[in-house]
Design goal:
Length: 185
Amino acid sequence: MGLYLSPLLKKKKAQTDFISLFFVLTVLFGVSIFAIILYNAYDDNIKDNLNDALTSSTPVDSNANITKILDQTSGGINMLNPLFPLLLVGLFGFGLIMAMMGKSHPVFFFIGLLILAIAIILAVIFSNVYEGIIANENFASSAEDFSIMSYVMDHLPLVILLLFVIISAVLYGMKASGPPAGGGY
């Protein structure tokens, strides 16, 4: 009298081929929001307090250059902008590896299109949220310093669509190894 779900559970690979789109989307959004908020918090609050603390705790006769220390600290945060394309390449690599690990039947392409539609809707929402945050006058200077990140986040739906096309090409474009279908003559 039990409900038999085992045939459905055994074929769960086919439904998870395009789930990496959501992972990529979430990581890009999370890192960009984190970087903007961290940079803004450092510029507005931490930098002045750190300057006061270093000035008052450094002996007068020491050779410590406080301006250099503060510039190096803010430079580390600014490095998140040129490193953002490397994160994007790494996430694309993750999506490709996930696509290569599981082959899918072409019938599931239509499920992939549904997942793509949901991912693009989320990408538009995330892109608009990011744009709303950097449009705030408190974050205006942060947006100017993170131009690469802002460019990727402004074009996030296109990035997700490109990743979907690449994953689809890997899933459905590559021929499986083995004997040809229908047997040999």
